[in-house]
Amino acid sequence: MVEWITSDALVPYDVAVSEMEARADAIARGEAGEAVWLLEHPPLYTAGTSAKREDLKDPDRFPVYDTRRGGQYTYHGPGQRVAYVMLDLNTRGRDIRKYVETLENWVITALAEFNVKGEIRQGRVGVWVERPEKAPLPDGSSREDKIAAIGVRIRKWVSFHGISINLEPDLSHFDGIVPCGIEGHGVTSLVDLGLPVTMNDLDLALKRSFDAVFQAPSGA
After folding, report:
1. Are 145 and 131 in contact, with CB atoms under 8 Å apart?
2. Bridge partners, residue 154, by sequence
3. CB-CB neighbours of 184 under 10 Å
4. One of 39, 86, 180, 190 is an active-site residue; which one?
5. Over the stretch 14-29, which tens digit does the pLDDT of each residue have?
6. Is residue 220 over pLDDT 70?
7. Do 159 and 106 form a contact (C-beta atoms < 8 A)?
C-alpha cells in the first residue's frame, strides 16, 4: 500500500528534500513503504540538472535552489499542488522512461476529472493545455499553456521528486524564469481556466487516478 501524506502548512524546500531523501533511502533498505507526499512550498525557484543560467531572469526575486532532479528551472509556491512520489521501481519495473510517462498519464487522468484535456508535447516537458481563445504565436501555431511540471530523480531504483500542478498560484511569479527552458508558450492553472477547483478536489482526483495508471508492485 502506498502511504499518502498531506502537509497543510507550507513546507520549506530544503526540509522537503531532506525528508524525501531519507524516505527514499529507507524504502531502498526495505525499512519503509512507498509514499506520495502532497504539499505546497513558499515561493521559490528550483534549478534542475539541465538548467541554463540565462533562463533565470530575476535571480533576486525568490530563493533559488539547485536540485539534482531532471529538468530545468521551475517555480513552486502557494496554490500549486506538489506531489513528491517515492516508489520502489525495483518492484514496479526499472524503466525510467515508462515511469515518467506514467507520471504524465497520472496528471492527465486527474485533470480529466475537471474536463481539462491535458496533453504532452514532443520536446516540451510537462503537461499542456491548448488555448485557442488566445492569439496564436508569431509563427501562426496555436498557443498552449503549461499546467503541470514533472521532474524526477532515481536513486537505487527508488523515485523521488515528482510533479506539480497549478491550481491557483500567482502566475506572475513564473515571470522570473523561463519555465523549463521553453519560450513562447505560457503558464496556466485550473482557476485561470475558469474552474473553481479546491486543493481538496485536486487531491481526491490525484488519489482516485493513481491506482488507475500505476501498476501494483510485483508480488503485491
Report:
1. yes
2. 159
3. 11
4. 180
5. 999 999 999 999 999 9
6. no
7. no
